[in-house]
Amino acid sequence: MNQKLGKASVRPEQPVYILNSGSIVGTKEGQGPLGLLFDTVGEDDMFGCATWEEAESSLQKDAVYLALTKAGLKPEDVSFIFAGDLLGQSIATSFGISAYQIPLLGVYGACSTCGESLTLGTMSIAGGFADKVVCVTSSHFASAEKEFRFPLDYGSQRPLSATWTVTGSGAFVLGNEDALQSMKGSDAGVTGTGRKARARITGMTVGKIVDYGLKDSMNMGACMAPAAASTLEQHFIDYGSQPDDYDKIITGDLGKVGQRVLIDLLRERGYDISTQHMDCGIEIFDGESQDTHAGGSGCGCSAVTLSAYILKQLEERNWKKVLFMPTGALLSKTSFNEGKSVPGIAHALVLESV
Amino acid sequence: MNQKLGKASVRPEQPVYILNSGSIVGTKEGQGPLGLLFDTVGEDDMFGCATWEEAESSLQKDAVYLALTKAGLKPEDVSFIFAGDLLGQSIATSFGISAYQIPLLGVYGACSTCGESLTLGTMSIAGGFADKVVCVTSSHFASAEKEFRFPLDYGSQRPLSATWTVTGSGAFVLGNEDALQSMKGSDAGVTGTGRKARARITGMTVGKIVDYGLKDSMNMGACMAPAAASTLEQHFIDYGSQPDDYDKIITGDLGKVGQRVLIDLLRERGYDISTQHMDCGIEIFDGESQDTHAGGSGCGCSAVTLSAYILKQLEERNWKKVLFMPTGALLSKTSFNEGKSVPGIAHALVLESV
Questions:
Q1: Helices A113-126 and B113-126 sit at what angle, rounded to 10 degrees?
Q2: CB A274 within 8 Å of CB A265
Q3: Cβ separation B123–A119 shorter than 8 A
Q4: How does pLDDT run across A203-253, given as a tens digit for each residue?
Q5: CA distance readout (Å), B29 to A295, B58, B301, B314
Q6: Closest residue on chain A to B92 (Cα)
Q7: CB burial string A308-328: b at 16+ within 10 A, e below
Q8: Per-residue model confidence as pLDDT tens digits over A289-347
């Protein structure tokens, strides 16, 4: 039986596998420390499109294509797609994945959307409603700045606490044991990493909205850190686990400011994660040479880092078990201009090597 | 076993119950044909708040409160909340339901979000991940006009094909057999409709994005009708069912224009739904006297009509089995201003009397 665990966690009875995945990023991400690991790096950040939003849509389309192709699958082989992005009404998804004609369940959790889509995708498979699903999220530096702050043409200055929205999209094909076996028995995976799953998802903790009243859209890390602390603490309680039980505890895009806040908040609650903590936003850029200040962020940040870097470490068994927790700042320009705070949310998944 | 059915449908092994629900609407909706059926009608459309967006947030908060109270439950009794709205980054949800501190899975499917939240909520229960969850969606005429078209102060004229976004929110407490039994054995439900479930959810068909290339944000009905036709046809195929198998086939907010398009599109595909079809957007307003043109629309339209009217008919066994299909237009002002079309999506649920 699948089971509910504690207040906010669930554990699938049978493991759900990440059969394969795909990542595509922009030029700046390609020049960063993880640049060589991504499946595709664009020549420029328009990706052949007329607008930033269309470019982001094409990122989702390409990431899904990469993930499906590497898994040896066609769009009609998967039951559902769980997809979302940061733009108003999730238009990167609406115009990005429609060509695949896969039944869509749209999700929104700000930059935590990658975690939410994987959580719901895992539930749909472990619940027996699907053999295979796709989860995809994206972000684009230019479309996000326009959506949340100022158009790039204004040349606004960015404080050191600001993060740089990652241009990129990561897609994941999830499957059950049957799907894994049929992949092994086919030509599947030959173009990817081989005829085995990249990792398995063995647990999930769903976050709640946490609002410490911060109102700074240029310091998303501090806005999200309390939510990250809340979900992490709940995860440790629900699973009866400790930071040491994980090779890495990986947040999505807290950046350098948020990382410090998270470690402090958890220390107050009796958990020291300073050894295990890693943040996708800190890994993806070289802050010194790339002028990205606190780090990378966005729906695409954790997704492409998971696909290109984290899953690789799990495959090579450098890490055996990690907690992957994309973090989201529930900001919109409307609520921001109306003087509202920026609440946060974070969803965690336990990923283990196969 | 839960099972996948055909290309896009799923059937839970055990029925999932709508234990109870709540509805709150604005003044115009209160004056409409269904006015006396809603749990709460606001005195004005600001609901004591300073902005339209805050007002919409308070609608979600109140609808969830009504649904939980009528079911005899507290927020901590439910595992997850599946919530969404129409605003950029779903801010009605972000600021509406945070006080409940329920783990949140945010969803976006435009006006189909009510169907999506119920679909995912049902999967989480039928999959064994939760005993009880809440699903809530909302819309507000004034926040929606500002978000998608023009601020009300401009006094823009509305063509006859335009719909009137419903100010309202509907929330639903879903539960499994255990949850139903414990509700029966407690004081639960005494403030609501009694110690039994309002209906059960016995099947679901997940829609895909369908885009016929229409670009008119003042004719959402025509934009959504092809998606409604697609999901309905897929539903009939997956379940091997016919229109006659349902007492009503209920769309969310196609309005009078969309209804005609839907009936025509399905007739071309060999299905005549003209006898069974009902549209929440047509039911909720009296178009002649209320100047609402093609009908009501929005995330709240199907939700409050389900809570106040459809579930009542199922309880009274005037209807035994209906297909409830909220319809969504995947529009944003950004994509619209960039000249993109308005794709549609629709998710269907089979609801049966208990």
A1: 50
A2: no
A3: no
A4: 999 999 999 999 999 999 999 999 999 999 999 999 999 999 999 999 999
A5: 48, 17, 9, 22
A6: A335
A7: bbbbbbbbeeebebbbbbbbb
A8: 999 999 999 999 999 999 999 999 999 999 999 999 999 999 999 999 999 999 999 99
Three-state DSSP at B164 gives: strand
> What pairs with residue A138 in β-bridges?
A169
Neighboring chain B residues of A95 at a CB cutoff of 8 Å: 335, 340, 343
Provide the residue type at B207 as one letter. G
Distance CA A347, CA B95 (A): 18
Contact B45/B26 with Cβ under 8 angstroms?
Answer: yes
CB A345 within 8 A of CB A112: yes
What's the CA gap between A169 and A137, in Å, rounded?
6
The percentage of chain A sitting over the pLDDT mark of 70, rounded to a whole number, equals: 97
Are the beta carbons of A208 and B3 separated by less than 8 Å?
A: no
Give, in order, the Cα–Cα distances in Å from A151 to each of A46, A142, A154, A155, A291. 15, 8, 6, 8, 18
CB nearest to B87's CB, from A105, A209, A332: A332
User: Are A208 and B98 within 8 A, CB to CB?
Assistant: yes
Interface A:B, Cβ pairs < 8 A: 192
Tokens of A38: 């991504």
C-alpha closest to that of A132 among A190, A97, A171: A171
Residues of B in Cβ contact (< 8 Å) with A89: 86, 88, 108, 110, 330-332, 335
Residues 6+ apart with CB under 8 A from A276: A243, A244, A246, A247, A248, A249
Q: What is the pLDDT of residue A189?
A: 46
Is the pLDDT score of A191 beyond 50? Answer: no
Contact B88 A88 (CB under 8 A): yes
Q: Are strands B344-346 and B327-329 parallel, antiparallel or unpaired?
A: antiparallel
Residue A308 to residues A170, A231, A329, B25, Cα–Cα distance (Å): 9, 25, 24, 47
What φ, ψ does residue A149 adopt, rounded to 5°?
-130, -100
Residue A270 backbone dihedrals phi, psi, to 5 degrees? 90, 15
Residue A186, Cβ neighbours under 10 Å: how many?
Answer: 13
Single-letter amino acid code for the residue at B89 = Q
Q: How far is Cα B172 from Cα B125, in angstroms, rounded to an integer?
A: 13
Question: What is the ipTM score, two decimals?
Answer: 0.97
Q: What is the pLDDT at residue A187?
A: 57
Residues of chain A with C-beta less than 8 angstroms from the C-beta of B4: 79, 128-131
Choose among B89, B101, B109: nearest Cβ to A331.
B89
SS3 at position B207: coil
Tell me, what amino acid is at A98? S
Residue A27 CB neighbours (<10 A): 14
pLDDT digits (tens, 9 = 90+) for B36-54: 999 999 999 999 999 999 9
Q: Are B352 and B314 in contact (CB under 8 A)?
A: yes
Contact status, residue B248 vs residue B212, Cβ threshold 8 Å:
no
Q: Which residues of B touch A84 (CB under 8 A)?
A: 108
Q: Per this entry, what is the length of chain A?
A: 354
- Using a CB-CB cut-off of 8 Å, the residues of chain A touching B226 are none
Interface touch A91/B335, C-beta < 8 Å? yes
